[in-house]
Amino acid sequence: MTRTLLSRIFGDAIFPGSFDPRWALFSANSFIAAMLAIYLAFRLGLQRPYWAMLTVYLTAQPLAGAVRSRAVYRLLGTLLGASAAVAFVPLLVNQPSLMTLAITSWAAFCLYVSLQDRTPRSYAFVLAGYTATTVAFSSVAAPHLVFDVALARVEEIVLGICCATAVHTLLFPSDVTSALIKSIDAAVRDASAWTADVFLKRAPTKSNAARWRLASDVTQFEIQLTHLRFDTAAAKPPIWAIRAVQDNLALVLPTLTAIEDRLDALGERRTPELDQLLSKLGEWVRAPAKSQHSADDLMRFCAEFKVAPPAMQNEWDTFLVSSLIAKSRAMIETLAVILELSEVIQGSKPASRLATASASKIHRAKRTLHRDQGLAALSVAAFFAAVLGCAAVWIATAWPEGGIAAQIAAIAAALYSSLDDPAPTLMSYTLWTVASLPIAAIYLFVIFPAVDGFPMLAASLGPPFLVIGYLQANPRHIVKALALGLGLIGALDLQNRFLEDFASFANVNAASLIGLIAAFLAVRAFRSVTAKHAAKRLIRHGWVDLAILAGAHRPMNRERWVGVMLDRLGLIVPRLALSGTDVETEAGRSLAALQMGLDLLDLKSSVANANDHGSEHLEGLVVKLSHAFRWFASGNIELPLEDAQALCATIDTELREYCKWDAAIQRARLTALVGLRRALFPDAPAPTGNRVA
Predict the structure, then answer these.
(1) Which residues contact 389 (CB under 8 A, 6 or more apart)?
(2) By three-state DSSP, how is residue 19 classified?
(3) Judging by beta carbons within 10 Å of its beta carbon (0-12, 13-18, 19+), is residue 642 exposed, middle or buried?
(4) Do 484 and 468 touch, CB atoms closer than 8 A?
(5) Dihedrals phi, psi of 107, to nearest 5 degrees
């Protein structure tokens, strides 16, 4: 019966049938580090030894490099937050309301900054915010001791950080390098398999799981790269190679989707020569080592391919074939670079000329990820409401534990602010914190009075914390594990001197729960966003950026555009799936926006390099495109009939200018115009009146 109850609560995570030794090792390491931290805190006579233990579980991560990076960011954030508290409290000690507002404003600012960076670096700013509130609100009764409180907090957290880092680094560490290389290998296999299917089957593939997974993988590489600098592996792959393969993998999705589109548009009107070339490309992709042709040979075949159609074909088919060949050549070049870079990352061969040339062409700036300024502002509003609400009650009623409620509200409102809707997670966290209180009461009033010495203390704490650590390693249970673990550690309030005080236990934990409930209510009022609404916001951001791109005088960097749009696509797909929306249709529109952005960049680049500085119609085309993208950003699915006809006619007019273009820019501009026409008007009839020189 007990097993059935636990199975309903935790699933199958804690039973032998699904026992994972990696999770068990992680749990054992976390418990060893926690006991080491609490023991040293006792020996050093720190004010709040339990903070060292709590820090261990907050710092613990399955990969050693992630533990070390989190430790560094936690240390930096703690130092910055403690310094802010030491600066504010003495200045405003006689004006508690103003001090509360100043400290809350600082924490809100840190929260806003953290939401502009979706990598693990943001953790430093989250810590800088709520550490300041914790130190400041703990010092209100004795403001002259604020430096001592800040110093004690830093000492306790540094101790916990050092213990967690040492144990997870020295005892059977799991390195980030292996996990990252495995992820890259999987992405490369997916990209190769999808490419081979497209070239050999010469039709759109049926399964889109690989393409959506590829969109999220590129962003995950950026996050893992943040940890790689702190990894424990003896030999780390070169970061430049990982960034280069990341940027090239980002091009796979839009390029292959464009190839599928051209093949779909051509249908059975392909020539035997074109099918033969596509077969060569597919055979090389499927087994590069066994192919009789090299990537250089295939790119040369594409460059020399004659796209002139037989008499029964129209010029539009010629344009489609020309665009298909250009995209296919780009795909082979991209995939060749990816395969070589993958071998460099694995250490199986040195960097080749092709790999280094590709890396040197790619902009080496930090990859730009999606930012939502609006949601960040709403998160700040929820944070203000939660913290200032608790503080107002605290000040108005002189509630002794009011500062604890404000501290917990600040922590809870900040930690999960990056979620679309933090409210359900906060409610779950609150419920599991409540579940930890009876366990803490049993320890405080039944078990601890019988404990004598640290060995017995550690042995008594082993059963619950080993289970909690095991659950924390499982992504499905991390929220409930943290709530149970941190709630239990806080409620136990381990000190050098044991005190049985039920009134204090009840009051402090009641204040903590009130802080959690305040954060939940504030988030529910200001910040809750459904998955469907979040997906719509992401799609809208894409169209807005596309309109800005159309109106920009200087073309944006290609890698930056692909990076942010692909990141959005990776965020959109799971949200659409959660909301029950048609993933293929809605995500397909975002993918079309990504492709049109690349075509627009190519079009502008071709005009910038042309002697005529663009045809007389091009400026009108760009203006119409900008208006169309803003129309889509407003939530519309289709353009008004007159606007659609005018835009399509303008594109067709540009296509009629094909024979007047310089040979060096013919294919680039033609490919861009064909891509824009197919993305905007896939069902439009073929343009008429075109003549190809």
Answers:
(1) 409, 518, 522
(2) coil
(3) exposed
(4) yes
(5) -65, -40
Structure letter (DSSP) for residue 31: H
How deeply is 268 buried, as exposed, middle or buried, from its count of CB atoms within 10 A (0-12, 13-18, 19+)?
exposed
Q: Give the side-chain half-sphere CA count within 13 A for 137.
A: 31
CB 614 within 8 A of CB 607: yes
Q: What percentage of the chain has pLDDT greater than the value 70?
A: 88
- DSSP codes of every residue in 399-456: -TTHHHHHHHHHHHHHHTTTSS-HHHHHHHHHHHHHHHHHHHHHIIIIIGGG--SHHH
Note whether 196 and 286 are within 8 A (CB). yes
**Contact status, residue 489 vs residue 461, Cβ threshold 8 Å:** no
For the four alpha carbons of 109, 113, 118 and 122, in that order, the dihedral sign comes to negative
Q: What is the DSSP string of 144-209?
A: GGHHHHHHHHHHHHHHHHHHHHHHHHHSSPPPHHHHHHHHHHHHHHHHHHHHHHHHHH-S--S--H
| CA atoms of 480 and 463, how far apart (whole Å) | 17
Distance CA 402, CA 421 (A): 27
In the predicted model, what is the mean pLDDT of the chain?
85
Residue 206 has pLDDT above 60, yes or no: no
The CA distances from residue 311 to 136, 302, 308, 493, in Å, are 82, 22, 9, 86
319-375 pLDDT tens trace: 889 899 999 999 999 999 999 988 888 876 666 655 555 555 554 445 678 888 989
**Residue 1 identity:** M
Tell me the C-alpha distance between 100 and 110, whole Å: 15
C-alpha closest to that of 291 among 249, 241, 335, 244 = 335
Which pTM value belongs to this model?
A: 0.86
Measured distance CA(295)–CA(532) in Å, rounded: 43
Is residue 277 classed as helix, strand or coil in its secondary structure? Answer: helix
Say if residues 692 and 318 touch (Cβ distance below 8 Å).
Answer: yes
φ/ψ (deg, to 5) at 206 = -80, -40
Structure tokens at 37: 């931290």
- 627-631 LR contacts (CB < 8 Å, sep 24+): 628/680, 629/543, 629/544, 629/546, 629/547, 629/550, 629/593, 630/543, 630/544, 630/547
Instruction: Residue 692: name the closest of 644, 668, 646, 657 by CA.
Output: 657
Nearby residues of 404 by Cβ (< 8 Å), 6 or more positions away: 137, 508, 511, 512, 515
Q: How many CB atoms lie within 10 A of CB 421?
A: 17
124 closest CA partner among 226, 236, 229: 226
The dihedral over CA atoms of 679, 683, 685, 687, expressed in degrees to the nearest 10, equals: 0
What is the distance between the alpha carbons of residues 129 and 109, in angstroms, rounded to a whole number?
Answer: 8
Could you tell me the end-to-end alpha-carbon distance of the chain, in angstroms, rounded to an integer? 82
Encoded tokens for 556: 């944006």
